[in-house]
Amino acid sequence: STASSSYRPSFESSLEHGLAGLRFDGGNDELISDYVHHDSSEPLTVSVVYALRELNGGYNSDVLGSFGGDATLLLGVAGYQSVYGAYSYDDWLSSSAHYDPDRYVVHTFRYDPSSGGLHEHWVDGVAGGTRAGAFSFGTFHLGNRSSYTSPNANVSEVLIYERALGEQERVDLEAS
After folding, report:
1. Is the separation of the CB atoms in 151 and 30 below 8 Å?
2. Residue 81: its pLDDT value, please?
3. What would the mean pLDDT of 75-96 be, rounded to a whole number?
4. Strands 104-112 and 21-25
5. In Å, how far are 9, 12, 75 from 153, measured between CA atoms?
């Protein structure tokens, strides 16, 4: 949901790769989910398929983020420090300086409290950074976070699992 129709990304029946998805304008577009990760003892896996059309150059122009929990999760941060990066709690997990406009990536984040609260992320199956710590992540959103801008991005798929996918499940998900 979003408070105002002017803040909604546009639905496109055919993006560059031929599939339907959402086009965020790089301004104020946002969608806020009903899902809330409120318990740090609960595992979580999030996978987002997106393409950055251009870099905003602004601060925290993330594709997917969370707010209202013990920690903030940001994926696909486009600007400030990172391209295809991830941020969890108070730590950059990793990023890539390489940027291909309109290239779709599969960005996956896994939180596993049974492994010491391990946070891991992958972009197109390539492992990024890790960190540990037990946190809840709150409410998830796509695009704008209050005073920040939305990314110039297309989003084709968002999957949220209330469990830590096993390694083979993650590999299979990213390949599909």
Report:
1. no
2. 47
3. 61
4. unpaired
5. 10, 12, 12
Burial class (CB in 10 A: 0-12, 13-18, 19+), 128: buried
Of residues 162, 169, 161, 154, the one with CA closest to residue 49: 154
One-letter identity of residue 30: E
**Nearest 10 degrees: CA dihedral of 39, 150, 32, 4?**
150
Residue 144 main-chain phi, psi, to 5 deg: -50, 140
Identify which of 146, 56, 130, 127 has the alpha carbon closest to the alpha carbon of residue 89. Answer: 130
Higher pLDDT, 27 or 35: 35
Q: What's the confidence (pLDDT) of residue 162?
A: 95
Interval 94-117 mean pLDDT: 80
